[in-house]
């Protein structure tokens, strides 16, 4: 038998650096598109949203303990952001933080997409297996797309600050009660509400179209960021009404999830994450998957 030896620190470090370099190279390489075949964009409707939500609930019920572990950090971050707004003289950013934080929600749901994918295929579905998916091929594109959503979030906060400064500002508020009173009982406050909601709607619509199926698609296939974005926009373009209904469903669910103190997100976010995966599967069809279905029908026939 060959004798096992312990490498010296220099050789061990070199091996780790080579491994890290390969991982970084795979992450960068994964950002580009390797799968040239474009999926077929399907027409989806309210029945597909209901079916996706139903399957999302089923996945959550089956994977409850593992899922909660994955998403518990999300409401915690929301609570920390709210605490910061209260204690740093940035009360006017409290609502923009709460309303805008879901802009980066698709990133937090990466593990959920993988859990649903594995459950569909009858594979191991614990959180460790899901997080292990974030290898170089997946990690690079996900980080790139996540960075794009983070940029949207920062721009939204800056826009909200400018809207407040031009209406109720620029003197900061130390009391949430006084801020709410001025917001709801003054003309400047209602001007801020109208402009803020209009601007927020634009941000939300853009992020919805960008992330509609892009993140699940990156988990599913090595398509790269350009193809994932192109496909997501194509789905939204073909199904504008359904996309709007899905966005409304997500918005209402997230608002309910913030009560009380963001705790509801521990249930709402997993269901929405799993449902997003199933909506993706209904929205696009790859040729090889369609061929596999056809072959299955042929082999099961008389």
TrEMBL record:
The keyword Transmembrane applies. The chain crosses the membrane at residues 67-87, 93-113, 142-167, 187-213, 245-272. InterPro entries: DUF2189. Keywords: Membrane, Transmembrane, Transmembrane helix. The keyword Transmembrane applies. It holds the Pfam family DUF2189. This is Uncharacterized membrane protein.
């Amino acid at each position: 038998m060959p004798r096992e030896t312990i490498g010296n620190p220099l050789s061990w470090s070199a091996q780790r650096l080579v491994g890290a370099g390969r991982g970084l190279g795979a992450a960068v390489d994964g950002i580009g598109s390797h799968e040239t075949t474009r999926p077929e964009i399907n027409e989806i409707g309210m029945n597909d949203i209901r079916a996706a939500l139903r399957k999302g609930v089923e996945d959550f019920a089956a994977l409850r303990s593992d899922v909660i572990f994955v998403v518990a950090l999300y409401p915690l971050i929301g609570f920390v952001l709210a605490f910061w707004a209260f204690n740093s003289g940035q009360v006017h950013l409290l609502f923009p933080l709460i309303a805008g934080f879901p802009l980066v929600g698709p990133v937090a749901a990466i593990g959920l997409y993988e859990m649903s994918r594995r459950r569909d295929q009858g594979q191991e579905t614990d959180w460790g297996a899901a997080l292990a998916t974030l290898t170089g091929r997946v990690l690079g594109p996900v980080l790139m797309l996540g960075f794009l959503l983070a940029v949207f979030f920062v721009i939204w906060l800056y826009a909200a600050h400018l809207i407040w400064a031009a209406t109720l500002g620029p003197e900061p508020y130390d009391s949430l009660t006084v801020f709410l009173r001025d917001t709801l009982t003054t003309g400047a406050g209602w001007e801020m509400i109208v402009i803020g909601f209009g601007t927020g709607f634009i941000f939300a619509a853009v992020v919805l179209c960008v992330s509609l199926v892009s993140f699940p698609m990156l988990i599913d296939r090595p398509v790269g960021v350009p193809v994932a974005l192109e496909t997501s926009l194509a789905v939204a373009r073909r199904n504008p009404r359904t996309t709007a209904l899905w966005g409304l469903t997500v918005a209402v669910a997230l608002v309910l999830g913030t009560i009380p103190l963001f705790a509801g997100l521990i249930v709402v976010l997993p269901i929405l994450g799993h449902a997003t995966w199933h909506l993706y599967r209904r929205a696009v069809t790859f040729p090889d998957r369609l061929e596999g279905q056809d072959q299955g029908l042929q082999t099961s026939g008389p």
